[in-house]
Every structure is written in C-alpha cells, then in structure tokens.
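Researcher: Please translate sequence to structure tokens.
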Amino acid sequence: MSPENKSKIASEKVPANASKNASVNTSENASRFDARKSLSAKTVRSTLLSCLIFGLIIQFVALSFYAYSFIHQYIRIADAAARQCRLSVTHGADACKLSDDVMRIYNSLSDADRAKVGTPEYRQFFAEVETGENSDYARIFRIIQDTRNFQDVSDVFIAMYDANNNAIVFVADASDDPTDVRLPGDWEKVRRNEINRFVFGNDYETLYTYDWTKQDGFLVTVGVPISAEDGHTVSYLLVDISTRNIAWGMATFALQLTIVIVLVTVLLAYFQTKTIQKKLVDPINKIAEASQQYARDRQAGNDVKDHFSNIDVHTEDELENLAEAMKEMELDLTKYEADLTQIIADKERIGMELSLATAIQAAMLPHDFPPFPDRKEFDIYAMMEPAREVGGDFYDFFFIDEDHLCLVIADVSGKGIPAALFMMISKTILASVAMLGRRSAAEVLMKTNEALCSNNKVEMFVTAWVGILEVSTGKLTAANAGHEYPFIKRADGSFEVYKDKHGLVIGGMADTVYKEYTLDLKPGDKLFVYTDGIPEASNSDGKMFGLERLAEALNKEGGSGGFAASAASGASAAGSSTASATGSTAEIIRNVRVSVGNFVQDAEQFDDLTMLCFEYHGPQGK
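Model: Translation complete:
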C-alpha cells in the first residue's frame, strides 16, 4: 500500500476533535520550551560530534581495508581489461597467426643473433612480419592501444614467454612512451617465477605478478592466455598497472590518522556518552518501557489505557512533548489496530497473488537455453522483462515436426494483469494452431485471429510476427500481424531492418487475410525480432531509443562491456556502422539490453522489453 493511501486511511480513522486537540496541546507545550533546550538543538550538537567521530572512524577503516584491497582491486581491473581486449584481438584480427610468425622467427635465431636485440640488424630478422596499415599487427596495435587509453592502464601488450632463456618475447606493444614501444621480436629477461606463474597457470584463474621498477614504481602485470584452435597457448595478452605514488603516501597518512583518531575518539566518546545518557537515553527509555508494556498488554488482551499517563519525563523539550502526545494517542491506537490488520492481510494476499502470477507467466515462456541441445543446426536466445509484475509480451519457439521450427514474438495491447491473461490465451491458441501441422505462417495467424475474434468482448488485440523455418534447407516463411520490423544479418554483412508487409493485428477484425514472405537463410545468418518496448524505451528527456540506436547495438562488435562504454557517446544512423556483430545470440541480446539501460538510465520502464535472436548454422549444424 502506498504512503498516500495509508495517510488517507489514518486521516479518516482519527476523530477530528482528537486531532485538533492534540495539535493545540502540542503547540502550547512547545511554546513553553527554550529553543536552546529543544531536542532539535541537542540532536544537532550531538550529531555534529557523532558525525565527526564517525567520519574519522570511516576514514580509518577505509584506509585499513584499502591497504589490503587496493592491489587486488587493481588486479581485477587489469584482468577484466585483459579478457575484454583478448576478445577484441581474437575476433578483430588474427592474433594467433601473428604470434606464431614472431615466435617462429625468434626460435630460429641463434643465441648470438638474439643478443643483438634493439639493433637495426636484429630488426631485419623480423622484416617479414607484416606491419602495414591493414595488417593484423596494425589492427591489433589499434585495439590494444584503445584498451590502454580507455582502461587507463600503464601498458597493454601481447608477448610469449621463452622458458628456456628466462625471457619474454614481445609480439605487439601499446606503451604510452613512444621511446619504450617494443616491436615484434624484441625480448628482455624476466624472473623465473613470473614465467612459471603464467606458463603453469590456466584461463580459469587470475594470472598476475608483482614487480618494482624504477620507471613505474610498484607494477602489477595481469595476463590471459591466447590459445590456438587446438588449445595450445601461442601468446599472452598482458596488462600493466602502476601503483606508484599511492602506497607510500597511504601508509604515512594512515599512521598519522590512526594516532589522532585514537586520542580524539577516547575523549569524545566519554563526554558524548554522559551527555546522551542524561538528556536523551533515560527519557527515551521511559517512553520505550511504556510502549513495550502497552504492546504486552495488547497481546494479552488487557484493555489498559494508562501506560503513558504515569511517565515522568520533564526534559523541557520535544521528548516531554512526545510523552504528552502519546498519552492522547493511546486510545486512538486501539482504533487503528483492526483497520491496519485488515490492510496488511489484503496487501499480503495481493502480493502473493502477483508473485504467483509472475512465476506462472515466466514458466509459460521457454527459459532453458539452449532449448534444444541436440539440434546443432541453429542457435536461439530470448528474454522478456515485464514493466510490471506481469506483462503482455511473449515469445515462443517450438518444433512443429522434426524439420519445421516455429518462431513467435508478440505484444498484447495494454499492460498488467489483463494483458498477461490475454497473452497466455493468445500464446496457447497460436501454439495449438501451429502444432496442428500447418506449414504456412499466414495461415497460423489467420486461424489464431479467427479464434480470438470469436469471443473478444474486452476488445484487446495482439501484434505478432510468426516464422516457420524448414531446418534442412534454411527456408523461412514468415508473416507479420502489425508487429515491429525484424532485423536480418547475413553472414558477411551487418544487421539491417527488413521492412516486411504488415497485416492487421490479431483479434482486431474477423476474416483478416495475412500475406507471408520467404527468406532463404544461409549458415551464419541471424534474425532479430523484438517488441515495441525496445525502440520506444525513453530516457528522462523523453527521447526514444529508436531503430537507429537498436541497429548500432546489434552491429556493435564484441561483448556487452564494449558496448556499454560506447553507448554514452551517442547513436549513429542505423546500418552506418562498418563493424558486424560477431557475438552469439545471447551476447547480442545482452548488448541490446545494456544499450537500452545505458540510454534510459533512471527513467521508469513503461513497457515490456522482449527480444528473440536466432542464428542459422545450416543442415546438421555445418
């Protein structure tokens, strides 16, 4: 129940004369008190002292924990940056091939040739490694350089360890010091325990080492392995974070602050305790004891009405005012009890029913992914996030027979429980019609429309997109009943809006005829369908997310973290991005959800957010 409703009930239940008398008495009592003796003044003085002590203690505790945790925090930041960058260099370029080429040349050199590192003659050994503008090295260099700039780390580089010579061999380096950039094939000596830490580690743990350098101070190096298709490690993507100028200043300041806090805390704690005990705690305890006795008598059924009449509180401030007000309110509380009991019972019942409705609706939608683990011909992922406890959107996918997969996404008019009920009816009818063995998406919509129009007294309707895929050939027949345009991505292209022909909404008019169209899906092609809650999601300025931002999110390269970073810079025109979405269906869905969240921020969600992404792998998953 909202605070406004509770206030309304309370105002209706309190007798008008009782409220008026209480207000008059309170005002008269307050006028007799010296403002300097008021509870407000005492609270301000006590709070100022308490806040000072509390602030110092918080600083002390924060510094103590910081001394232990700042290194581990840096390690987590570097590990996240390294893993994100690894995704980019392995999808955006061929890091494995570049690493293999560099290490092949390095391993072919004699010890005498390796000793020439840094000389023009040594550089000539690696001249065959392509470093031009469109080479893998150039793309990787830009990626790791962007990671270094965005993540605010000291250095990002790709290297491989030579355990035989206790050396690290650089493949690509994005150091912020141009004079210190290591080129492919450059190497330097490292500690043996650093080599063992990375070589004998695995990708499931955080790999890191510490080192102290004259140039960067205390240096933390975190890395993740880059593996070839056969699983062997070809190199490591490493991130350096310098903590210079933090540790020493923190230690000195923490020691000084500790001494001051201990002295101040002891003195203030003594005087504060005495003051609060006399002027606040004792009077409050008297009122609390009377309140506890009142509660015990109410539980025992004793109709005693003088719990607060005998309170001896003479503090000449708001506490004495409170004691007087509670004497007058004691009789009124009895009247509230029966009403509040009924209100609480009704609220709990409604909350339980809504929770049950949410669980039932969630169970109605496919929620186990992958839904068909034994079918490798395709990949599918979907989500539905209702704006309220329950929603009117739904998605569905099911096999009509062994070779025909039905894909559905729909949006019921309205919101809340009515829309949820109509949603479940519509979903059940549509699935039943499709499962009768019909191969035509248009016929499925037509028969579903006939069923809903036959007894649609509430005059609700459904927008829907239905597609039936012949898995063995990739032939998709689809029909659109007033729903949003789907997005199509070919294997060698990017997501683009497919403006199909719309029919009338389901449940709007009987005898409606729907037109269907055919899409020939090839291996690697993707399909993205959604409800209007995505493009119509609005931020606090009233601007809608729109199809342009949706297209940018779909075509964003990499995982959701990369997109979250770019979302703040604004959206470009739909389809203008040259990058293609290379993620899985689940990653694409998460990209869109993160993009919508970054755009909407704290604005209220007014509509359900529902999406379905499908990728065709080809017959037998080939």
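Researcher: Any highlights?
Model: The chain is about 50% helix and 20% strand.
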